[in-house]
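FOLDING PROBLEM:
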Amino acid sequence: MSRRGPKHFAKLAFALADDDEPADTDVAGFHERVLAAAPGDDLLALWRRKLTAWDFEQSPSWSATAARTPERRAEVYGKLALDEDLSKAFDAAVPVHTEPGPVTISRDFQPWYTREHAANRSFYWASYERLLRRKGWPDAAVSGLDEAAHAVVERLADPTSDTSYGARGLVVGYVQSGKTANFTGVTAKAIDAGYRLIIVLGGTLNLLRGQTQRRLDMELIGQENILGAADPADPDALVGIDYQDDEDWPAKFVSFGARPSDLGAFDIERLTSRDRDYMSLERGISALEFEKPDRTRPLHDPANLHAARARIMVVKKNKSVLEKLVKDLKKIGPILGEIPALIIDDESDQASVNTTDPKKWEDGKVTRTAINGQISALLKLLPRAQYVGYTATPFANVFIDPGDEEDLFPRDFLISLPRPTDYMGVQDFHDLDGFEGDEGEAEKKHVRGICDSTGDRLQEALDAFVLTGALKVYREKHGVPSEPFRHHTMLVHESVRMAEHAALALRINTMWHNSAYKGDGHTRLAALFERDFRAHADGSLPTPETYADLKPHVSRACQLINQGGSPVIVVNGDSERDYAQPDLDFDRTPNVWKILVGGTKLSRGFTVEGLTITYYRRTTQQADTLMQMGRWFGFRPGYRDLVRLYIGREEALGRGRNAKTVDLYEAFEAICRDEELFRDELARYAPLVGGRPQVTPAQIPPLVAQHLPWVKPSARNKMFNAELVEVRSPGKPIEPAAYPQDAVLTSRNTERWKSVLAALSGTSATCVLRPDETSPLPRSFQAATTLIPHAQLLSVLSSLEWEDGNVLAPHLTYLSQLDGRLAKVDDWLVIAPQRTQHNRIEATVLGQGPFSLFRRSRQSGKQSFGRISGLEHRLFAQQLIERPDLASTGDSFPALGATQGIVLLYPVVEAAQDDEVKAVATTGTAATDRVIMAFTVIPPKAAIDTKKQLVRFRTKDSTRPDAVIVNAG
């Protein structure tokens, strides 16, 4: 039962059986053993591990079914020749994990890193995998990491190839979601496969670099490689060796039991340490002189490569440090061309991308920023170097100057990691399916707006910090594992100015000492507990019934927060001393319970452990700056229900005539929508068609530009070389968001829907949703409905006018072929939902109706609306599309049929409040220039040909088909 695939279990068991133990081969007895197994049973754990690994494996040679599906599991049972009862027993014990895996957009590549190849050389990966399991990682998480890391390594160049090639790739994770674990796995697999020089670019501060070094040392490099030849029992031999003062040494550092070279593997030599960045090669050039048993062959020849030690360095993204590294490498000589190297760039959109203005380049010669120039120099020196960037904010890497072929554009692959289980992210703070102005469940639970009417709420935020600390102490006392409660922090970010940070820290200190947490302050805490934290508590976690039960733990929380004499730490400078404060060292300090005042310098890569309360009011017009401050995302085991975001909803931006008020929560949501859309687009077009990719990395910019109008080529005299011609959406919603703002265009577009409005006028139907995963109960809404022929809908959609180009054009190319050329759609069920009776505002439109008017508002600073269609309306439509053979339980809906699609139609008034909508409907008739006819079109699932290709591009410059952008002239 290897990674080569499942085999006939009974036959294999008989073949391997020991005659003295016939029970081992008794399948009936095995069945009983599985049924009787306790949750921690070793046999069941082994089968859980194997079944999960087979479930997750992407495109294995032994299977034609999709990973993470019941079909894959059924195929596994078939190959194991398990009977139905035993299969059911395993299904109950090891359910199929159907959550999405990594999404990969890739060029064609030459397969070399097969599962068999990986299994044959897996010393460091096997060690890392064992460590993850010891740390309590579930099988699904380990298998998911295995598949994601494998997907990266198989797209790197074969390290033993005679031909040198440097792949460029990008891995997109989520903010504070465990990207380090992924690149540690990639590093383990890469050195096992033969990569012998690993350069990790680990942040812009020594603290960040040191954190990354420590993580790799602890989880991958291990005790024996750190100690080298030193005797751990000899104190004199340990002088100058890392981690002798670290409370986790040696217990939490991986150990192989002996030097890897003594176990038939190879050693790792560290060229940097926890406290020492790359200065210069301590032993001179000899540190990079690789031993070659056969000097007649190059280093990358397998006879030499697999005997050589690997070198690993973790270096800061600092101009002088990288210059020293480049200078030393230049001294090495021709062997540089023989070294398979891997450069991993953590937070690759920070400092690495070339952001110089092309208009200022002299004679068209590229001018590079300092860090970008040094990375480019490294890649030139190492022709066998592979570059893999890691980031949670991919736009900088994907869209800044993709035409610079020596830059870091991910020309070979882009891998989007799935949202991890138990991760607290965008969907936990923003109701992306809701509408602007409506408070959804996520907002109610975790977001506390700061407005003129609320006051600054800083005292409340401070009280929330104390309360949540007390609740953590309470939960620890009631059996919740205490490790996640080791640190407890609050982040306050109001300004970018250092002087203001000092004043704010003084104010918080004063507020803390005046808060009377030993006296009258309990009245405030009790009120806040009742209205907020008890109301939104997780029922599966211990929470006191009354504040009286919590009160005894408040003093302990205050004691922890105030230890060291002050509850506040200011972190706001470029210098290392800001980050070297003992109270801020999450690795070496047992309990960091502090309020951190600062801002941008608490940068990406720096994880604020135990962050529970965030107070954010800093205004900025830079999307990346705002995204960097999304520190409230991450893993919050045992206390995710306690997390609160206090955020400015009416903050002043600019001065004088340029002054305006901005909603920071709304601005952040707009960025999140863009990023979620980016991930959705990648997932949609990732499946191969005929064994070939539908989309390559070079086609991502024009593809996403279709939905994000701000995505442009890097210079005015350039354009995207790939033009999006057609997008096919069988069974998937087509929902434009960027409707014209011009009143004349709006009026003309509304008039083009007149024939459809006339057909809808006077009709009424009850739309009933079947129970599903969103609700166990049926739900319903009222709507006007009609059927219209395909040609009529196509005529309306084709006549619509748009600003900034026809956003519907690639979809119209597809829809126009549903007359039988590509597939056949006979007619479309048009559904115009009505708002609930309580909220309904009605008016006639073009003399038809009346219809419900819907309120929507555009995203902050954009032409685009957020979500147009209502969640229940969309779910109802999707249920009809998914089961076209099944009649709805509504009074007017027979089975849809395989050749009918659905249109959701909304008369939309652009407004922030319902009073503005009522004003439009005052006379009972809505003016055509005030009503945007917004729509969602869902073609039937059968509306596709047998090739199932979903996207089609045209290359503008056919002589350069792989170029991302070309000159427009």
Remarks:
- Residues 206-227 form the longest helix (22 residues).
- The chain has 29 helices and 30 strands.
- The mean pLDDT is 86.
